[in-house]
Each structure stands twice: as C-alpha cells, then as structure tokens.
Amino acid sequence: MSGPANWRTLSERPLANYRVFEVTELHRQRADTGQAHTFYRIESVDWANIIPITTAGEVVMIRQYRQGAGCETLEIPGGMVDDGEDIAAAAARELLEETGYRAGNVMELGSVFPNPALFSNRIHSFVATGCECVAEIANDANEETTIELVAIEDIDRLLLEGKIDHALVMAAFHWWRLRGQPR
User: Where in the sequence is the domain holding 24, given as residue range(s)?
Assistant: First the structure.
C-alpha cells in the first residue's frame, strides 16, 4: 500500500506580512494525476512553551486575555523564538518575562506542528524544574498576565473540566506525561 501522492510546487507568492506571521500562496500539482490547486500557508517562526515547576512542586500558570478566542485562558508561558535564539533559552526567557520566575533545570519534552494543514512552524515544549520567583512580570504593551500556582495533582482535573483548553498547552502536558512527569 502506497501513501498519498506528493505535490510539486509550481509557484509560490507571498501575499501578506502581519508582523507575527506571513501568508504565502502556493500553486501545487499532484504528482500522480497532474491536478493543480492553490493552497495558502501561514509562515511563522517556531514557538516554545514551558511547564514551570516551582521548588515547592507547583505549576506556575498564567491567565491572560486572548484576542483570537475573545476570552481569558489559563496557560503555561510561551511565545515566539527570536531569530538565532536557542529554543530552550526562548522558553526560559518567556517564563521569566511572563511570570517573573527563573527556570532551574530545563528539559525538552518534544515538538509538534501546531496545524500542518496551514502552518509551516513547530512548537517546542519544555519543562523547567526548580523555578523561583526572581523578578516582576515584564509583559509588553499588548499582553497582561497574572500568575496562578497550581498543584500538580490538579492539572488533570483542570484539563478534563476544560479550564485548561489551549491545544498547545494540552500538547505540552501530554508530552510531560509521556516523559514521566519530570519534577
């Protein structure tokens, strides 16, 4: 049994640049039938998120208003990886900026495509143990985060109740479980 047919790119055209992502039009052709179709790809830098565990064994989570969903969400820190930045360093930087907590030991959990039908990038998930509050929150003008310390044993309940419902945060917790819940 063979897999799906490959597509070859006939042309690519940038359509728009929106600061945090770009949209590209792709004109592609199926290798087996010759059928051509136009697709659209959202291009973004890679993202990183991090599950921060305090020295007391709590998960440092953040609440913030999300413009896309139009509501407040409960999440772990995360964001965009800067050009040339080490991905683990980006996760630790986001943790410090959004919470004021510094990571002790940082361990990579895994990475996935956020949505391979549309996006070209990946999100890399990490866990940080031994996290300690060392600074004030340093949000930029477009974000506001508040901290919630959550007992590790409450994470599954919050996921099941839909109180944590950000898919990329859920992916990080899934990786965390698969890696044996490093604490």
Answer: 7-43
